[in-house]
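Fig. S4 source data, part A: sequence.
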Amino acid sequence: MKIILLGGPGAGKGTQAQKLSQKYDALHIATGDILRQAVKDKTEMGLMAKSYMDKGQLVPDDVVIGIIDDRLAQPDASAGFVLDGFPRTVPQANALDKLIAKLDISLDAVVNIDTSADVVVERLSGRRTCRDCQTVYHVTYSAPKKAGICDKCGGQLYQRDDDHEKTIRERLQVYEKQTAPLLDYYRGSGKLVEVSGNNAIEDVYASICRSLS
């Protein structure tokens, strides 16, 4: 199974990607992870990415595509993959289509986890992170035993700046602006599968599996 997984901040892409990769024995390719690994391994594309990251600049599309190209060309990706976090724009999707054609890969589906803004705000604004060990809690779903204190190391819990409601809604607006044309792009190809991300993790997972079957 070869899948692209789309969804805004707080949609649960990472969780669903892990579950799908296990079900289909497919490689979970998280763009941020392979970018950091390429930098660590000092590959040609990784060094190019690092030159931008060191300046605090966004890594250009062609460099990210190059890193994805390197990863998809590796033998362990041939059985299948779940691509998580890319593409985010139509130009990125165009570049990815060319890469997939070059590698002679047939994409099975593009799954969009459609999650309402209010649900996302509830999920993300409730997150609390340990200052010391970076363990993440949630005030409703996975609260620490003692409020404000990490269960693991006793460190202080805090709310990250990008987990404040105002910032979350701004991030969602940016995502919607970028992604609406992308959804139309994949809808036109007949590959798009849309599921609601407003439900519990297992319910969302079941919906995706039904859609893919």
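Fig. S4 source data, part B ends here. The mean pLDDT is 92.
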